[in-house]
Design brief:
The complex is a heterodimer of chains A (262) and B (393). Chain A is an alpha/beta fold and 262 residues long. Chain A contains ten helices and nine strands. Chain B is mainly α and 393 residues long. The radius of gyration of chain B is 29 Å and the shape is elongated. Chain B is built from 19 helices and two strands. In chain B, helix 4 runs antiparallel to helix 5, helix 4 packs across helix 10 (179-196) and helix 16 crosses helix 17 (359-365). The chains are: A alpha/beta (262), B mainly alpha (393). Chain A binds chain B through residues 56, 59-61, 77, 80, 83, 85, 87, 91-93, 96-99, 102-103, 106, 109-110, 112, 114-117, 134, 136-138, 141-142, 145-147, 149-150, 158, 162, 168, 177, 179-180, and chain B through 33, 157-158, 160-161, 163-164, 166-171, 173-177, 218, 221-224, 226-227, 357-360, 363-364, 377-378, 380-381, 384.
Amino acid sequence: MDGAGGEAMAPVVEFHDVTVAYSGRPVLWHVDLVIRGPALYGIVGPNGAGKSTLLKAALGLVPLAGGRVTFDGAALADSRARVGYVPQRETVDWGFPVNVMDVVLMGTYGRLGWFRRPGRRERDVAGECLRRVGLADLAGRQIGRLSGGQQQRVFLARALAQEAVIYLLDEPMAGVDAGSQELIFGVLDSLRAAGRLVIVVHHDLRSAAGWFDGVALVDMRVVAAGPTAAVLTTENLRRTYAGQPAVLEELARAVAAGGRTP
Amino acid sequence: MIAALVPYNTLIVAAAVAAVGLAAGMVGALAVLRRRALAGDAAAHGSLAGVATAFLATGRRDLGWLLVGGLVTALATLAALVAIRRWTRTRDDAAMALVLGVSFGAGVALVTGITARGLPDSAGLEQFLLGHTAGVTAGDAALLASCALGAAALVALGLKELTLVAFDEAFAAAAGWPVGLVDLGLVGLIAVMVVVGLPAAGAVLVTALLVIPPVAARQWTDRVGTMVLLAGLLGTLSALVGVVGSALVPRLPTGPVVVLAAAALAAVSAVAAPGRGWWSRRAAARRALVAWHEGDLLASLARGDGPPAGADDALRRALADGLVARGAGGFALTATGTARAADLARRREAWARILATAPDDARAFLTVDLPDPAAVIDGARLAEIRAAAERRR
């Protein structure tokens, strides 16, 4: 659909020597990572490893102590329209007086620009995005009266409405039941099939092995990155989850089991 | 007709204060949603020192200059608040208490000093403490009204941007919106409304004019746009009650009347608003419980057991509705009752299947009164769920 097509159009996100520090302590430390699309790509690592910060650094939401991030070779400022974002669900107040359609329409605000209100076209786009995440019948509902999985799907629909080329999702499977998880992964899969690059911060290695084409294991720095099967080895996992033997054992079993079912 | 009873000046002032109430409610709605209500309080208390300083500098009671002075120190107070938060490790509430106390203390000291020295025209200065519209001239009123309507227009213009930032700051920033700039605009509007509201409500109480109408409005609606509009209307109403009250009772300040009127509207909203109000939620919970007990009763009788313990209410109702009849061997279902029991059993099973295959949908739609799934879930979605249940079987 991107007329020009060809190899040159394949989306790519590059982290060059990125360091992020909170009050003097590095959260990300010399991160070098190149992620090429189309792909469904997982950022995996222990709690507090800096996974979310990696996305925030890419989006300019936290200041970089050093390094730079590019989207298709361009700086973030020139790439906003090409990038869609799904923040963590807990970051917003779900008692806010907006309904499902209102939230999804927010995805179209970037194209509308200052002071222009969404119109017919934007409503159509948002409606289609809601259908893709199976929430068409809940368009008029206040967002607090949804289950966790549905709230996460609303956020995904809003990102779809951004009509981006590169999607960054922060823990979209947190607090989501199996049905919603399958649906969300299905939508992400279809984005990949349409040539997009989808980068997902994810905590569950079992489903990671099944769904992601590529994975980066992150713990302050990039421990390993590449095709999923090559990265999720016992050795790499031990290096990433050092100090968490219980987690490690379970992960090893999970990886050994492999398979596509979450 | 009214003009014959009420002096012309009072009408002009009332119209201006109504405009102030409208804008205060609208700006306040966004302030509350963005959690900036306390910023309004700091700005309000800080404005008094500026009003007094402007009086000293100009030597007369010219409302325009007094308000400019108030706006300057209101913004300075907010800046001090931001600075303390950013550069010291003081907690938010302590920083707020500190800034609010110091700035208000300075303001009260200045006003009292000026009044005590008996400078000409200075008596009216105390009206900025609790608000009094008696001294407002027609010219002042025009100034207040135009500032207020300007603020209201800006809220209407930037509603999309203000809402986006208030709801999801991170998403807005990631999409390239200048969150800091939008926030600055909002805080600027808050400061302007606080200062413009001084004659009506006074430095101590003007925050209430910004905060209470939105809280009341929130009870009636789940949409930002409606909430902003409603907060404006409730603000208008409260402000008008304040003007009339202080015009009728000699020496009664406007501020307290405005606040009490707004609080009364909020209290009524919290109790009576459909959906979110206390009354409506209680009634819904009761209806659901009654329906649940009735279901229990019918199921129990359908099984051939007697009425379950504690089902007296449901039993009386079922007898009255002709679902149950008293027979020789105790209570029994009528034909209607049997049909209804079967219907409920079918629904319970349908919901159990939905819960097993699509727990998200069940959680979103199931209520204890067991509605027909087809009545609450979209047809296409229901078909999907049924197909998924078939596949799983």
